[in-house]
Design goal:
five-stranded mixed β-sheet; flat; alpha+beta; three-stranded antiparallel β-sheet; 9% strand; 5 domains
């Protein structure tokens, strides 16, 4: 540390000497070095903060060695810049940069992929490309007028854009959108947008300058290169300049604000706070809860260490559990984990070679007996174990050059369970992926937004209904999830389905015991706190399952309502073939009128879609509604007389027609007068 201080002071001294002695290039080199040091000096705050041992102290950088490790991001591993981890153009540039650049300055699409992310790289929707055009104009004008000042902005644009792409070498897929990584590049381009506006106004001012300066009004103009000049313009010219300025103001910044405001407005959006609060409230006192990564960890820490909410719960981040400094903090910092590990064992812990095998952990007899007495009330057939254990299959989670292995986080889950001995309740947050639960699923019980590890097998997914209802109905916060004015993006809507899952598990539990009134209470509460019109299910099968639960509980009209609402909301976005598939589904589910109306609407919008006519022909044939079928097929065959499949359907319908029906000259069936009477 002393050597670093001496080197920095020497660098400052050399910079001062070079400036005083007018050594131009040496002064430039030393001053650049000084600025780099000044920039890095901000990290001294990290070092000072860590020495104070705050409650959140990631990497514990309180020594020079650990600070260097932190700055080098060693916990994230090393990777090659030359060897691309994903296609450079198609993914790293096109999808992970140009797509974001387009959002800022060209337009933003709406088509989503299977991960819920916008597909379109370039679209004019919303912004019409106007900011981009102004930026290109500003770049051209800047280089033409003053390339020496334009070059640093270009350097900033490239180094915080394309250079970052090369350096980050992002893998496919990324866990979240990464547009924030290129903020500096977007700032640089935004400067050119401003210069583009100045270019238009300067050009206008120059072209409208009257021939006789004394007869004009004088005004001061600041050019894009920073020069202040006195310019003259006629009254008409000034009015035109003002009009163009106003037009550009409306077309670009005001339009950008209007287009993005709703999706960027966080007013009334309490999802992060409430979701984290509800995870903590799902846990019993003094619990341990495993979380998956940043998104379900930092909000919990915020509530605990800023708002002092449920600080008795020890949050254990599985990603950080691979690091020795974090394991030490879990062992040493309150609320401590009962980890029987020495300093040396923690320092030396590494992934362990592993093949699929069964793991057995002992369960204290009193703990088991208490859990068994509660569980047998819900399932009288549950067998009692004389020597209770947790016995589950653990599969390898890591591939190494030496064979398959277990990650450190998996080893530590087993160690925590072994040393804890069920003295404290242990949970997995619902956001933890199945592979990170290392085979413990048969022992998990849903208690809300967390699965509790039980000392008894729970393969039938039994719940504690009273505890579950108290959590999801009385303890949980659902602020504004029933407010249609609040914007929730697809990622948030997907996350919120975990609430719906908890309600549905409890409703299904009551239905399995024919407790219909209780099931209705749960379903109604779910609809009250997060109605499907505000937080849609986005999948017909989920909405349909809710409807069937209502029907089982004695309210069948809820199923019909969901069918109609889904059609109104999603049907227009489906392909013609998928629409026929839904018509088949509705017909199969006993909704023939709805199925018929959907296909009729389909052929009305697409009168040349033969499959729609075939579907209706078969539908009318099956339902013995021959008159409708014959009329439909004749209408189709009038335009397509050579369609053999339609002709076959027509003959089939005629064969099914009543005996007193006869074909008229047009080929349609009509009743005789006697039959009509």
């Amino acid at each position: 540390l002393e050597a670093v201080v001496v080197a920095v002071l020497a660098l400052f001294g050399l910079a001062i000497w070079a400036v005083r002695n007018k050594r131009r290039y040496l002064a430039l080199a030393f001053m650049c070095s000084v600025l780099v040091v000044v920039g890095y000096s901000t990290y001294s705050v990290i070092f000072i903060r860590s020495t104070l041992n705050p409650e959140i102290d990631e990497n514990n950088p309180d020594t020079p060695a650990r600070l260097v490790s932190y700055l080098n991001r060693e916990q994230y591993g090393d990777w090659s810049i030359a060897e691309r981890t994903a296609p450079l153009w198609e993914y790293q540039i096109k999808k992970m940069y140009l797509r974001y650049f387009g959002w800022q300055f060209i337009g933003k699409g709406t088509t989503l992929d299977e991960q819920g992310r916008i597909i379109e790289t370039i679209t004019l929707r919303g912004l019409f490309g106007l900011p981009f055009i102004l930026g290109l104009l500003g770049m051209y004008y800047h280089f033409r007028k003053d390339w020496r000042h334009a070059l640093p902005i270009l350097t900033l644009f490239v180094m915080t854009g394309f250079a970052i792409i090369i350096y980050l070498n992002q893998i496919d897929p990324q866990p979240r959108e990464r547009d924030y990584a290129y903020t500096g590049s977007f700032f640089a381009f935004a400067l050119w947008i401003g210069i583009g506006v100045a270019a238009i106004l300067e050009t206008l001012q120059e072209n409208l300058k009257p021939a006789k300066a004394p007869a004009s009004k004088s005004s001061t103009v600041v050019t894009s290169s920073g020069r202040v000049v006195e310019a003259s313009a006629s009254g008409a010219g000034l009015a035109l300049a003002a009009a163009i300025t106003l037009l550009l103001l409306v077309a670009v910044p005001i339009n950008m604000f209007a287009f993005n405001y709703h999706s960027h407005d966080r007013g009334g959006n309490y999802v992060a706070y409430d979701y984290s609060y509800n995870i903590l409230q799902s846990c019993e006192p003094n619990a341990i809860v495993f979380t998956n990564g940043d998104n379900d960890t930092f909000p919990l820490w915020f509530l605990q260490y800023v708002h002092n909410i449920r600080k008795d719960v020890r949050v254990v981040n599985l990603s950080l559990l691979n690091t020795n400094w974090y394991i030490k903090q879990l062992r040493d910092d309150e609320p401590k984990l009962a980890l029987n590990m020495s300093e040396g064992e923690i320092e030396q812990i590494q992934p362990r070679l592993w093949e699929k095998k069964n793991v057995t952990l002992a369960v204290p007899k009193p703990v088991y007996e208490s859990a068994y007495l509660e569980a047998v009330k819900l399932d009288p057939s549950l067998p009692r174990e004389e020597n209770p254990t947790l016995r589950f299959e653990v599969k390898p989670t890591l591939n190494t050059p030496y064979g398959t292995a277990l990650r450190v986080q998996d080893i530590m889950i087993l160690k925590i369970l072994q040393d804890n001995q069920f003295r404290r309740p242990v949970y997995f947050a619902v956001t933890v992926s199945p592979e990170n639960k290392i085979g413990l699923d048969p022992y998990l019980r849903m208690d809300g937004l967390a699965f509790r590890i039980m000392p008894i097998r729970n393969e039938r997914r039994l719940l504690d209904p009273n505890l579950m209802w108290t959590n999801i109905s009385e303890k949980f916060l659902y602020r504004n999830l029933n407010n249609p004015k609040i914007y929730y993006d697809d990622n948030i809507q997907s996350l919120l389905q975990n609430y719906r899952s908890a309600f549905l598990h409890l409703a299904q539990f009551h239905l399995s015991r024919r407790e219909n009134a209780e099931a209705l209470k749960v379903l109604d509460r779910m609809g009250e706190v997060m109605p499907e019109k505000v937080i849609p299910t986005n999948e017909l099968r989920v909405s349909e399952a809710i409807g069937y639960m209502y029907m089982q509980a004695g309210r069948p009209e809820e199923l019909d309502r969901r069918y109609h609402e889904f059609v109104q909301r999603e049907y227009a976005n489906l392909s013609d073939q998928d629409k026929l598939g839904f018509a088949d589904l509705f017909d199969y589910r006993g909704k023939p009128a709805l199925a018929e109306s959907l296909v009729q609407e389909l052929i009305k919008k697409n009168p040349n879609y033969s499959e729609g006519y075939y579907w209706l022909g078969r539908f009318y044939s099956k339902r013995r509604d021959t008159q409708k079928g014959i009329d439909l097929m004749n209408r189709w065959l009038t335009k397509n007389p050579g369609d053999q499949q339609a002709n076959a359907l027509l003959q089939q319908l005629r064969a099914l027609a009543p005996k007193d029906s006869v074909p008229n000259s047009a080929g349609t069936s009509v009743r005789s007068d006697s039959a009509a009477q």
